[in-house]
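Structure tokens please, single chain.
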Amino acid sequence: MANKHNSLSHTKWLCKNHIIFTPKYRRKVILNQYKRSIGKILTKLCKYKGVEIIEGHLMVDHVHMLVSTPPKYSVSNFMGYKKTIEEIAREVISGAWGNGEDRVNRLTNAGYNASAVQEVVNRLLNGNYTSNNLDEIVQEVIQGK
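Here you go.
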């Protein structure tokens, strides 16, 4: 099981990921009464995605899972977590995603719709800034604020 390679028409793959879930503030909420149901839920969700749970441990304040995922799923895709477009737009405004064509490529490669992100950026900028302080916006962008 540990070295089982899966194959497609021209490739063999073995993708394993060690995933750790923690409750907010690492509260000790995974009690014995919930362990079975949490295990069943995680098993069912993994079956839906075609993911094999190799090993799993439920602790009082976190969950460890070693899973074998198909190569079509990134870890964030499998976990179902992607930032909202508004979160990404705020990062774009702060300069974290670059500028111009580089930004479009980076957003597309990360799985986001660059034009949708740009629409939210424009909406946020138009709603938060007036034309009176356009020079201040330019200076903040140049300084990287």
